[in-house]
């Protein structure tokens, strides 16, 4: 049997990974009801296609590591199987996508004739470039399933960009300002020996490490970099706004020590539960880091606004999943990448709103 590797399908940010398949195919009733959202009905054909799309990514990325029973396992340690986790994610994704579609007119959003034509062409290309078995396995025998995924993702991209325009993106100078310091970090948790075993430091070894850190802390500011590298360590840098920042990745004790420094000054040894640190404050006010932080905060405010809007719609919506049909979707037929991929001849078929990429045939 000769199967063509499923090509990458990309329209306005919606992508379908390349793959080959094994298994008997799709047994879902195409027009059965998956869910209703107010007066809108979502078919099992669409829901199954979304679920199989997620399966492709897990099968081809993680199955080699977790094994073929991964779908029955509690992969995330949350008390549910991977199958249940993925299907829950698909439910949530479809609810969000159809809510965005339902509110398009409020934001003046539409799918243009050009975008619809690009979606149609991409779906036609996708189906024609792949075997019937592969198309059946992914749930794409009905071309509208492929088109609907691409259409919904196109709507989401446009709605997201429009909704975040209404966010309050005010960021004060105090919120954005950043200080930058260089630092030496010497781990005290242990080391890996020649046999790849993790070995804990003895108290004597920890004392020697602290002596090394103290020697570097005593070096002049202008030779701090050299002192660190000469001791066999790497000098790193970090920027922060305040030691009270709850989202800071650096240990609070380190940030408090940085707060006490003037520009160019070197700290003493800061001891945490996992390491010894020595700092040098490089900039009291880092313009570049501050500008970057400002953009980060603006983006966060935009995403928070988007989430608030969608969450409000969810609270007001009547969303009902047809569990008896939805439970029929399983991930027992696995998707597999070919053992040897031939990429010669791969080319972009479209640019801009639509891109497609097909790979050479592989013998099955």
Description:
About 45% of the residues lie in helices and about 15% in strands. The chain is built from eleven helices and 16 strands. The protein has helices at about 45-65, 80-100, 115-130, 130-140, 145-165, 175, 205-215, 225-230, 250-260, 285-315, 325, and strands at about 1-5, 10, 15, 20, 35, 40-45, 180-185, 190, 200, 235-240, 270, 275-285, 320, 335, 355, 360-364. Strand 8 and strand 9 form a beta hairpin. The longest helix is centred in the C-terminal third of the chain and has 30 residues, at about 285-315. The radius of gyration is 27 Å and the shape is elongated. The model is unreliable at about 1-25 and about 340-364 (pLDDT under 50).
In brief:
The protein is an alpha+beta fold and 364 residues long. Helices cover 43% and strands 17% of the residues.
